[in-house]
Amino acid sequence: MNTDIRYEKAKRRIRGLIWSRQSQKVKQLVMGRNLSDGLLAKLVIYILLSIVAYLYLQPLLYMISTMLKNISDLLDPTVKWIPRQITWENLSKAFDGLQYPEALRNTAAIALSCSIVQVFICAMTGYALARLAVPFKGVITGLIILTFLIPPEVIVIPLYVIFSRLGLLNSMFVFLIPAVFGQGLKGALFILIFRQFFHAQPISLEEAAKLDGASVFRLFFRIMLPLARSACLVVFLFSFIWYWNMYYEPSMFLAKGFTPLSIRLDNLDNVLNPSLLGHTADSPGTANPVTEATKMAAAFLIILPPILVFMFLQRWFVTGIERTGIVE
Amino acid sequence: MNKVQSHKKQALLHSSKRYGTGMLFMLPWMIGFCVFVAIPIGWSMFMSLHKVAVVPGGFKYTWLGMQNYRDAFLKDNVFPIELITYFEQMLLMIPIIVIFALLISLLLNQRFPGRFLYRALFFLPVIFATGQVLSELFTQGAGDIPFLDQYNLEPMVKEYVGGEFATTVMDVLSRVVLILWYSGVQILIFIAGFQTVSPSNYEAVRIDGASPWDSFWKITLPASLPFISLNVLYTIIDLFTFPLNPVLKHIKDNMFKVDTGYGYASALAWIYFAFIFVLIAVVMWLFSRSMKSRGGQR
Hints:
By secondary structure, chain A is mainly α. Chain A contains 16 helices and no strands. In chain A, α4 packs across α16 and α5 packs parallel to α8 (173-180).
């Protein structure tokens, strides 16, 4: 009798032990040892990120769905996301309205040439600031930050006059020449990125190359620049995308003829229905749904190339930005 | 005499040897700075002190002194109000953007399957956020959030916040999606910043029994302080040159008005710049102080 009770007790205790061990395991599985290991934490991360990702994707999806609707679907409020019938008419209209091939060529010429030039010039300037002896280095760094701070609106008129004196207006050189001289779009940010990057490189590498008799130029182009490949890629992508999307500067400097896509998107209303000239500019909220679809198609055509470039390069982009290690 | 000259020559030779290559590397930037930044800045300041009229063959300047600046506050009944409203909104938006970017980048920095896909998705705003495309989308209403009307938040906000500030809060709330879109670059900078923290630090505090919560406050946050300051700076500049910014629109409108013209518009732009400059100076001072006190502890 006594042994039976004792046996039961021991059994229960062992069961409890096993249970607690198991629950601990479950707890560890759910809560995790690290913040990110547990199932619960993972679930929360997934949910939060998915919500934000949805918000990011939503305009893109809206754009694509509106673009593919025909007129009856556009006017029908019951058709929200998925059009009843897919039409390519808007796309072809936008293609013509933007004069896509020509505008694409203009935009690509500006964005490609300027961003490639910017990579080299900003790398050179950043390298000089990081490693070479330059008088008044602190003052120069301050001035670089100043150029980042000054809004383009403040100096646009003098710039316009300077560009017109130099005869650069209405050609791609209006962007290429400043880029050659280190004053491209957000060039200051890129100089700072390169400066931080070159700071982080081990100095012994340069010493070794110098001992072997390499000149500074050889050293820079053969060793430092290839080492900074990831930083170059980051700068190139940022620069490319910002040049591609820029609106204010071309609206000032590229008034006629040679216009990039972003300006043509703005003019699209007037191109589509010339009778409304002047009306639509003041009341963007009351845009009629038919032109809206065409505009969405045009917007899609504009962002398609950078998305493709981004998709192609983003593998290196992600690791690249992590390796730059921008440390103040 | 001869000796002094040779000394000078040597000193010159020495300094040219020392600074030569550095200057050569800096040369393009320096030329660019002089031509495309220094001259326009000086010119624009000069114009802001004049009444500028466009005449055939150039500009006609009439000296006004500080008149343009005085007019901006005393005569113009749009500019001061817009400036102050926009500043209120910015002051609210900057912390929201930076904190949001910090949270998202913290989440993206965790290890979980599919992280790669999510990261790719979170770089989307970098592509769109600068463009005309985005403002086009927002004028079409793609960026509206339904919950504001659905749950009738406005009276609630009015009740808790009260008065004049409530409209600012509502304005910011109605732009939540825009805020999310403008935090793409910040998220990227934060993720880059987290990579500079060595994982052994986290391991060490975990062995010492710190919870993830502690390790965030004691390691992650202090280590990312420079990036927070960089992001605050970037956010201010980004909002400053925001395409839907009412102040810049006002400046642009004034530029092409006959009775006000370039001079007045430059004066407005300089006032605007001065406000932002003060804001940036205060922010940088606060951060440098907190970083210094941290550096002292180490």
